[in-house]
Amino acid sequence: MDEERKYLVFEKVLDHGFVELIDILGTDQAIVDAARTSYDKGTTKVSSTEQLLRYLMRHKHMGPFEFGECVFRIRCPLFVARQWFRHRTASYNETSLRYSEAIDEYYVPPADWITSQDSRNRQARTSEQVIDSDMIRRQFDETAHLLLEKYKDIISHGVAREIARITLPLSLYTTFCFKIDLRNLMNFLSLRTDPHAQFEIRLYAESIEKMVEKYFPLTIRAWRDYNKNSITFSVHEMHILKEIIKGKLNLLSEIDLYYKKHPDLTELDKLEKQEFSDKILLLLGNSVVLDYLGKTKT
Known about the structure:
This protein is of the alpha+beta class. Helix content is 45%, strand content 15%. The protein is built from 11 helices and 7 strands. The strands form 2 sheets. The chain has a 5-stranded antiparallel β-sheet. The longest helix is centred in the middle third of the chain and has 24 residues, at 133-156. The protein is elongated.
């Protein structure tokens, strides 16, 4: 890495990879200011920065989150980059192997990361280490090294770089810049920090999550509360819950009782408590509109 390169946050990932946060635009406050431009005087009961920001996240009013933006420099194996570029709501610029010769760095997973194919999920692996993982690791290393040597030999014969590169392994490291707004970055993080994501790209996503939290702490907290660490139910699942609960349990009374017994154990503010009650009413078959911005409900 160039010692003179400027970055805000840097973290190593895998054996030769890294994530650099090199630029940001906006703050949590800027996101809320953008939201208030459209909501104007409708925010009287959701007046604080955090309350309004959490309201936006909770009700999926995601436009204002586009007023935060991050630029990263990424070094990762080619197979990770190809997964990454599936997120087409970002801007990318990758090192070209037509202009530059390949760097002599490739990814070799530790032996305990070389695990078996999941029999139930065709695109996933298990946590069970294969018996010959040390031998297979050596094969990964030897094969990638051999392909790079072949590449260098082809280059030495005067072959154009754009042709010579076809022999390179997917484990080769590539470098690219990645610019994305917070709205789309949170979608990236939702997918790539999920346990079902490939382990290697998940490590990069987890690094990015920590970096972004430093500059947008309220946004990342709200995203975790209402997205990453939350669950949703389908209409069929809600029907089952409704049939089980109906006539057996007065949920609203139980919730009110819980608030009274544990006043300090819930982080729900006044509006969120009201919305929670409305969700219960909706679950039980009542006609309720959940999307309201601090307005008195009738």
